[in-house]
Structure formats: structure tokens, C-alpha cells
Specification:
It is built from 4 helices and 4 strands; from the N terminus they run βαβαβαβα. With about 160 residues, the protein is α/β, with parallel strands linked by helices. It has a single domain, classed as Rossmann fold. Strand 3, helix 3 and strand 4 form a beta-alpha-beta unit. Keywords: Arsenical resistance.
Length: about 160
């Protein structure tokens, strides 16, 4: 039985965008019947923000057991098929990965300090993008080069 693809979503604090992306990607993979090993981490660990938990609960995804972690808290941190950064500072701080690891940068606005509507907008953008990523993985296609290049993302 082949090993499922391993994907890491990396952000600065692993408190919002990367946590939401991890949960959304797992759900998209479940719905697509794609076995996928998804992790999220930050360049520093803090805590998962309550607003992230709130807006994810609205779409039936529970972040209550999620914890903020660094890359070094993730099992086998140098062995991923794809590493996706969701903020600019994480893209700059992202460690070097072996040649076979696909790296993508999909920058999303930081919803921290914003209204719940702003959090919902970012959640919905993440959902669209990571459903597109799961679709590409399921179909053996190349991951979109950027957020703007994703065929599933038409408005943001």
C-alpha cells in the first residue's frame, strides 16, 4: 500500500490561517476519498485563535483540539511531498526542503483583529484554494503556482 502524500501548511504563528487550511484540506481530502497526511505548523508557536475556532465551527469543522506548533513538533519535519506557505513571513523563513518537495506560496490576508466577516472571507478563500490543491493531488496534476493561478479561485 503506497504512503499517502504528506502536505505541510506553514504560517508564522500556526494560530489561524494554517490551522484553518489544515482542517479544510483534511475535509476536502475526506470528501474526495483521497488519503492525505496533512499537518500545519508555524515558524513560532502561540495558540489557536478563538475566532478561527468560531468560523470553522460554522462550517462543521472543530479546531478545539488543535494546538499551535512549530515545524519541529511535526513528525518527520523534513519529509513532505508539498509545503505550502500561507503568509509572506513564513515563506521567507521556510527552511530548505529536498528537491522532490513541491513548494507553493499562497498568501492570504491575516484576519487577526478583524471582524468575524473578515475571518469568514479568509476561511472561504482558504477553502476554495485548498479544495483546488486536493483536486490537483487527486488527479495527479501540478499544484497551482500561486493563489491567483488557481482555476477554482475566481474572486477574492
Amino acid at each position: 500500500m503506497p504512503t499517502p502524500p504528506r502536505v505541510l501548511v506553514l504560517c508564522t504563528h500556526n494560530s489561524a490561517r494554517s490551522q484553518m487550511a489544515e482542517a479544510l484540506m483534511r475535509e476536502a481530502a475526506r470528501q474526495a476519498e483521497l488519503e492525505l497526511d496533512v499537518h500545519s505548523a508555524g515558524t513560532e508557536a502561540t495558540r489557536v485563535k478563538d475566532d478561527a475556532k468560531t468560523v470553522m465551527a460554522e462550517v462543521g469543522l472543530d479546531l478545539s483540539t488543535h494546538t499551535s506548533k512549530t515545524l519541529y513538533d511535526v513528525p518527520d519535519p523534513q519529509n513532505f511531498d508539498a509545503v505550502i506557505t500561507v503568509c509572506d513571513s513564513a515563506a521567507e523563513a521556510c527552511p530548505v526542503y529536498p528537491g522532490q518537495t513541491v513548494r507553493r506560496h499562497y498568501p492570504f490576508v491575516d484576519p487577526s483583529g478583524g471582524s468575524l466577516d473578515r475571518w469568514r472571507a479568509v476561511r472561504d478563500q482558504l477553502q476554495t484554494q485548498f479544495e483546488s490543491v486536493v483536486g490537483a493531488l487527486k488527479n495527479g496534476q501540478t499544484l497551482p503556482d500561486s493563489y491567483e493561478d488557481s482555476p477554482a479561485v475566481t474572486a477574492h
